[in-house]
Every structure is written in C-alpha cells, then in structure tokens.
Amino acid sequence: MKLLSFRDSSGQTRVGQLVDANTVQPLATPEGQPLTDLLELIRSATPCAMLKPYGNTLTLASVKLLAPIPKPARNIFCVGKNYTNHAQEFTKSGFDAGQTAADAIPTDPIVFSKTPETVIAHGETIWDADGVSDALDYEGELAIIIGKAGRGISKQDALGHVWGYTIMNDVTARDWQKRHKQWHMGKSFDTFGPMGPVAVTADEIDGSNLDLKTWVNGELRQNANTKDLIFDIPTLIETISKGITLLPGDIIATGTPEGVGIGFTPPRFLKRGDVVAVEISGIGKLENNIGEV
Fold first, then answer.
1. Is residue 161 included in any domain, yes or no?
2. 105 lies in a domain?
3. Residue 290 to residue 293: CA distance in whole angstroms
4. Residue ranges making up the domain that contains 106
5. CB count, 10 Å around CB of 270?
6. Last residue within a domain, chosen from 39, 66, 93
7. What are the DSSP E strand ranges found in 156-218?
8. Considering only CA atoms, which of 186, 226, 224 is closest in space to residue 208?
9. Distance in Å from the first CA to the final CA of the chain
10. 171/104 same-domain check
C-alpha cells in the first residue's frame, strides 16, 4: 500500500492511500476515526489492511503533500559510502577528509545522523545555503522505515522489523563535511532531508532489488540498483541495533550510488534554480528545487 501524509483544503492533516497517480483516499482507523499521523499508525502496529476509507476520494492536485513522516521522532540514521563506485568517487574527490584510496571501501557500515528538522516534502524548496556553503550536493537514497522495535536484531530477523520504504535525498554541504572532518553538520542544515512522496509498505516491494535514479535539471546523474549495496538492509539493521534500540518510525537512509556532484571533474554542485528528482521503482519520484528559504 502506498500511503501519504497531506493537508486537505481545510488545513487538516490527514493520511491517505494513493489509489492511482492522481487519486487519494483518506483513511480512518479500524474504529472509524480519521487517520492524521502516519507515525502514530506505525507505532500502533495496526495492520494497514484494517484501515477504512474516510470520506470521498480527493485529487492529488487538491491537497498539500507533506513528507510521509513530517517530524521524525529522533535523528535519522544514515549510511555513508555504501555503494562501491560511490565510495571510490568520494575518496578520489578529495572531500573525504583524511581518507586514502586504501580506505575507500569500508569494512563496516559508516553510520551518522541527520536532524529531524532537515525533513521537507516533495515539491518543497531545498535551501541554497547562500552565504553559508557553496558546495551543495545531492544523494538519492532508499530509506527504510522501522515498524517493530528491537535491540540486538539478527540479520535473519531484520526484515520482520521493517514497516516500509520511502525515498530520501541526503543533501550535503560538502565544504562543511570536509572542514569539520565528520558528517553531521554538513548533512543537517535545515531542509537538507527531502523525503517522500509516499511511504510504501514492506509487503509491496523488495527493498533489495529496486532501481534508483537521480536527475538534475533533467540530466540523469545516478542510475543504480539497491542490490549493489555493500551492506544490505539486514546487515544495516543488525549493525545499528547492536547497541541502539530501534523504535517504530525510525528511518534508516541506506546510502547513495555513484554520480553525485563531487564525482565530476570539476565538481558539479547545486545552485539556485536547479531541480533534483530522485526516483525509486515501486515508490515514485521525489522532486525538489534549490532556492531561497
């Protein structure tokens, strides 16, 4: 099931099912109450099959789309250098502070975080960080949404903890990433976490075999498949949960493939007016422009 969060014409926040490319069916709980928060639904462990239609269908054009989880409960877990070719292009770029060619391919998942305030919806504007950074970059990624809490989750059990998937653009200020020799600040500027347009339940798609493409101003920059992840989804969940209890609604961005701006010579950074679109098969297309916020 494809679910989305939106505001209707009266300004009320709702959760609905994307029935087709242009039609939204608002949903209610099994008890008939309008569904207003996807995070609450995930935490309740209510099967989506038990949800009920609430009122008439709406056109997608008539609603204000929000990120599927507009305000994540805590920092978003992110994974760096998780595709071989991207790991190599990042190290060669010179922006991977202190790393050499011998360090290009990680031996264990590199995990960092983005703040919840980075999250914006499909169609909203990514801040161009004018006067703060002149090295903005894009990173199209598959994001996992955790549905079942756990610590010490084994790889064998990991997929049973996945509620669903969405798309994330892990926007990065590369100069800050390099200067501070860690990734949190350069990844966590306001608006640097576009997410959406929908969340897809885990029973609908196979996260281990999804095509991922990213365009900038209509030019294809990234083209890969999640089967090429260095550390697959079960490994990421097992690793993060070794000492951290994963909670329902937690988000794990699984990493980006080659083709980011720093992979070009010279680098091709984002500028005001650019449009970035990330598409993942079975989920949809997340599109945002760069501008003043």
1. yes
2. yes
3. 9
4. 76-291
5. 22
6. 66
7. 162-169, 172-173, 193-201, 211-216
8. 226
9. 33
10. yes
| Residues 115 and 214 reside in one and the same domain | yes
With a CB cutoff of 8 Å and minimum separation 6, the contacts of 146 are 161, 162, 163, 237, 246, 247, 248, 249, 250, 251, 252
Longest dimension (CA), the chain: 59
Do 140 and 213 form a contact (C-beta atoms < 8 A)? Answer: yes
Nearest to 169 by CA among 130, 119, 211: 119
Q: For the segment 78-99, what is each residue's pLDDT rounded down to a tens digit?
A: 999 999 878 788 777 776 765 6
Same domain for 91 and 236, yes or no, is: yes
Split into its structural domains, the chain has a count of: 2
Instruction: Identify which of 155, 141, 164 has the alpha carbon closest to the alpha carbon of residue 2.
Output: 164
Distances (CA, A) of 98 to 92, 184, 262: 11, 16, 16
Which CATH number covers residue 137?
3.90.850.10
Distance in angstroms (rounded) separating the CA atoms of residues 66 and 5: 5
Q: Cβ atoms within 10 A of the Cβ of 64, count?
A: 14
Reading the block at residue 200, the tokens are 């897809």
Q: Tell me if 10 is assigned to some domain.
A: yes
Q: Indicate the pTM of the whole model.
A: 0.95
Which amino acid type is present at position 51? L
Q: Is 71 within the bounds of a domain?
A: no
Which pLDDT score is estimated for 100? 60
Same domain membership, residue 282 and residue 195 = yes
Mean pLDDT for 183-212 is: 97
